[in-house]
Amino acid sequence: MVIHPAALEKRIKRHVRSQQQRFYVIVPPGFEATACRELAAYDIPAVQEDLGGVAFTGSWEACWKTHHRARIPARILVRLAQFTCTRFEQLERHLEAFPWELWFQPCQQVAFQVDARQSVLYHEGAIQERAERCVKRRLHPWQAISSETDSPDGVQTIYLRNVHNQMTVSLDCSGELLYKRGYDKHVADAPLRDNLAAAILQEANFSEFDMLIDPMAGSGTFGLEALLALTERGAGHLRHFAFEYFPAFRPAAYRYFLNTDVPSRHERPTLRTIVLGDIHDRPITIIHHNLQQLAALGVDTTQVRVEKADFFSTGAEFISGKTLVVMNPPYGTRLKSAQSTRAFFGKIGQQLRHNWRGCSFAILAPGTEAERALALPVARKIVFSNGGISTALLMGKIS
């Protein structure tokens, strides 16, 4: 097979750049509906496809917008092919026939992620070995005529998922996981990922409050996400993505998109003050570092207050107007036993009921024992997995 560069460019334009694509968005399991609502706000109609995944069909501009604006996704893949696969011969035939030259730059480094379950072909290593060989064989003629000798920055990752003998082939559009917002953020112990914090804040309707308080702030993720969400900067404003290395990528069109993609706000958020507190010195130092990083990038951080304070000795002095308390208390390995967890969450619930009356809350609780110990008036609950621990987001108002 001989590949002519001019003919290849025409094929890329016809089959990739100008075509609607199917995108799969990996999101925190339990927050699929939240992610669909977020994407709908940007005119991207998505539907839940499975646990931890939603999908939409759209243009490359929709892909750019999802990366640039949406705060909940963890990774976005573009679907390339799907076929029944019960024999290695089928796998090789489909992968060798696929036009990989439309999706990879010459000399691009390629990695593979393989997931095989409940299928005849279940050996992930054998699947990857054959996939590597097929892709390399297909791309070899193009690489032979290319004038490029160095690999482009970054690695493009092909995802192969074989479930119930149905092989789905996808290509990563994101690069680094999307919870990494592109600034030098330091973290404390057992940090909450930024995209999960964003999902929790959206479920709690944080922007409708006057004040947001996180009295066990750790590295300040809840407050930092709230602050960034209130600006006109998208979640991906400060970083780059894997799709920028696709042959179909148009840098000029992308720059125009970035310059013109300004979100429209139907209602101005009322949130004016964000209070981040912790009893320990290290988290306070980390929060100050993270705020300094954002300020250096032009983010107005003046509405954030950082307080070194013991949650169990505070309350009314922090409350001003309509207040939302968000908390990710220590649990799991950070507490020594189930009994310690029950006692600790019981103490949290007692403090909230006595000293934080009138506040709404969004609190993470690991299991039914912790929920019962809190003894709070829960109006809504979302169960999800956080660090392998079944966790509930509890929301309500303290009367």
From TrEMBL:
Ranges for domain RlmL ferredoxin-like: 23-77
InterPro entries: DNA_methylase_N6_adenine_CS, RlmKL-like_Mtase, RlmL_1st, SAM-dependent_MTases_sf
Protein origin, superkingdom: Bacteria
Keywords for the protein's UniProt record, in alphabetical order: Methyltransferase, Transferase
Domain Ribosomal RNA large subunit methyltransferase K/L-like methyltransferase: 181-390
MF GO annotations: nucleic acid binding; rRNA (guanine-N2-)-methyltransferase activity; rRNA (guanine-N7-)-methyltransferase activity
Protein's recorded name: Putative N6-adenine-specific DNA methylase
Source species: Vecturithrix granuli
